[in-house]
Amino acid sequence: MRWSLIVCAGLALAACTASAPARLIEARDERGFTIRYPQTWTQVRRDDAAWFVPDADRVPDVAEFILVVTRSAPGKLDDPTIRRVVFEVLPVQGVSGFQQDARTTAQALWYKFEVTGTSAGREWASVGVLVSGDARYHIAVCAKPLQQWRSGQKQCDEVIRTFQPGNLNH
What CATH class is the domain 22-161? Predict the structure, then answer.
């Protein structure tokens, strides 16, 4: 009896450990931004985008990802342009929130958003932020497969909360 309790406790502990999200580590990009991502993921650079993914061979057809896009801009983006560029970057299907973030300052306009989309037939949910300055902007998005959103949203919220854009004004 005692031996079976020890085995059951060990199996329960292993199950909890296996489902725990990977520890987040920090990446500093030469384009000025800093973002945290799961230590077991890989960074893949494509044009103006930095992808952080569990499987580098599938970019951009993934449903679990962190994406940071950096683009030049002639001044801070206005509200309609902010929405348009987010919709251009991602295959968005639905929007459940899009609002100015409390981190907005005179130097940088912050917009937080929540969107859903589909990549290669797989649905995902995400949180993201667009940060716009006088010379460029970043779009940072953290997405999880729709069926994993409930358990993955906390990690995505942490990724987006700790995103730092660097200097966007030159």
Answer: alpha beta
